[in-house]
Amino acid sequence: MTNSLTLFSPSGVVLKAAPVRRAAKRLQKLGFEVSLDESALARFQRFAGDDDARLAALHRVAEAAPSVALATRGGYGLTRLLDRIDWPLLARSIERGTRWVGYSDVTALQLGLLAHTKAESWAGPLAIDDFGKETDDQLDEITPEVFREAMSGELEAVGFRTEAGFDGLEAKGVLWGGNLTVLSALLGTPHWPKVRGGILFLEDVNEHPYRVERLLLQLQQAGVLQAQKAILLGHFSDWKKSPLDRGYGLKQMVEAVRAVCVTPILTGLPFGHVPTKLCLPVGRKVQLVVDRRDVFVGWEHSHPHEHEHHPECGCEHAHGH
Amino acid sequence: MTNSLTLFSPSGVVLKAAPVRRAAKRLQKLGFEVSLDESALARFQRFAGDDDARLAALHRVAEAAPSVALATRGGYGLTRLLDRIDWPLLARSIERGTRWVGYSDVTALQLGLLAHTKAESWAGPLAIDDFGKETDDQLDEITPEVFREAMSGELEAVGFRTEAGFDGLEAKGVLWGGNLTVLSALLGTPHWPKVRGGILFLEDVNEHPYRVERLLLQLQQAGVLQAQKAILLGHFSDWKKSPLDRGYGLKQMVEAVRAVCVTPILTGLPFGHVPTKLCLPVGRKVQLVVDRRDVFVGWEHSHPHEHEHHPECGCEHAHGH
């Protein structure tokens, strides 16, 4: 059984090749047969190639259907492609076993896939951000191992600590979400996945809490938050305080949203523009259980490659839990 | 006929009273009887009073129905109030003759009004930004005079220069718009005005062109841009270049949006987070005419106070053109 992994660049330009090459080496050590799509180092303005080139890259990777399609980095660029992506082609690659992975701008791809085809993808690392550091000791201790487990099909649950007050909470629903700004920019478009009764996870970077609040209140006023069974907040990192804040910050923002939203909003999800990030199956039906302050999000193993198309591969880890 | 003007603070906290007092004096010199609503200098975290206080201020000003209701500043805050605003009460103040004025965060109020009641308001200056400077020579030469004309009912058209390529363009439709980020945050909510065949104006501040583009493409993908007869772009100011840009900037952004949008997109509108700003009647039916590079946006005088409810007031400027 191959364990092929293709690096591709659907969004922002990769300024230097070295981090991509370092990421490729580290991913090889992790057990993947790594190849670089020709898009990976392409350049056009602030994009990894012009729109046609990036669109072609997406479709080329989908046709090749590697085990893992991992984006090199985020930035901005997928929004431009959404109206032109061949979603069924991408969904067929997923039926053939491809796991599409990334976060940040890749949220647009993941949610578009969910909206158009209900196909599953993975919110998880990006090659440069999480595997491209100069030295090994700059790598996160958890992220690569969780990624390896998720890509092999071993990962069937993730856990984290949240605030007190949610002990006993249980919910089942479709897990979806990603970067809040990118997700919100799909609202009202054909690329918005109309998930009801889901479990929505969100993160963002460089956004002041009042900007996060504005988007969360938009989702609230649009009926999105109330339609979910739970909201999981990851990290909202790298925002700058202002003299205008006067005691307003992330905590006060979450309180303000909780005051108008009946859906439980849990903080503490290890996900976002931070070194330690879980892999989360976007579009998968999951079960959430809170025991005191411990949150478990579990799902049934259902890698379509193994179960639907090639049951004979009999990979042990698929049923090892 | 009184020319009363009330300063109120529906959004961000006013840290210092001095700019508000200077603005009040200058507005008095301009011919207004200025009063300060008790909200004007209220403080709660980064807001001008807590949500209940700011909501009460809006309703109090609406009940008093001054000739002009001018916000002190923008920032963030109206999003929190949208679900609780008594829109018919605000619309009644407008029927009684009140012109609600502001830009930036005030966009949420103006578009909510339009969505819920079709009532007209004015995109125009904010007290602190445009009348609160320390010395008179820091004031813009155009903004105060256009404001005075608009508030007196004299202003029946505005003009500006745009790029070549739109000579002969003519369009009639409802004028609407404001701050792009604030406007976009209404999409999908009950506060979104579903204007079709309109003339949409947009501005923003501190937003990199790729972020402006993402929101414009959201409006495009949501069918909003195509449903308009023209898009007028004001200033997109104070964004920081990045080493990642590689030749991508505002110009390239506009080109990218034009490539997918059939609606004419005209740049050069004097509006935004810049000193020189026009007053624009939000919700008013206007006529747009382009002669070579000169754009004219004109409307019929229709101050409801004078024409619908008190025709006997017979203010001369109303028919002076």
From TrEMBL, chains A, B:
<dbReference type="InterPro" id="IPR003507">
    <property type="entry name" value="S66_fam"/>
</dbReference>
<comment type="similarity">
    <text>Belongs to the peptidase S66 family.</text>
</comment>
<dbReference type="Pfam" id="PF02016">
    <property type="entry name" value="Peptidase_S66"/>
</dbReference>
<dbReference type="InterPro" id="IPR027478">
    <property type="entry name" value="LdcA_N"/>
</dbReference>
<feature type="domain" description="LD-carboxypeptidase C-terminal">
    <location>
        <begin position="172"/>
        <end position="288"/>
    </location>
</feature>
<dbReference type="InterPro" id="IPR040449">
    <property type="entry name" value="Peptidase_S66_N"/>
</dbReference>
<dbReference type="InterPro" id="IPR040921">
    <property type="entry name" value="Peptidase_S66C"/>
</dbReference>
<protein>
    <submittedName>
        <fullName>LD-carboxypeptidase</fullName>
    </submittedName>
</protein>
<dbReference type="InterPro" id="IPR029062">
    <property type="entry name" value="Class_I_gatase-like"/>
</dbReference>
<dbReference type="Pfam" id="PF17676">
    <property type="entry name" value="Peptidase_S66C"/>
</dbReference>
<keyword id="KW-0378">Hydrolase</keyword>
<feature type="domain" description="LD-carboxypeptidase N-terminal">
    <location>
        <begin position="7"/>
        <end position="124"/>
    </location>
</feature>
<dbReference type="InterPro" id="IPR027461">
    <property type="entry name" value="Carboxypeptidase_A_C_sf"/>
</dbReference>
<keyword id="KW-0720">Serine protease</keyword>
<keyword id="KW-0121">Carboxypeptidase</keyword>
<keyword id="KW-0645">Protease</keyword>
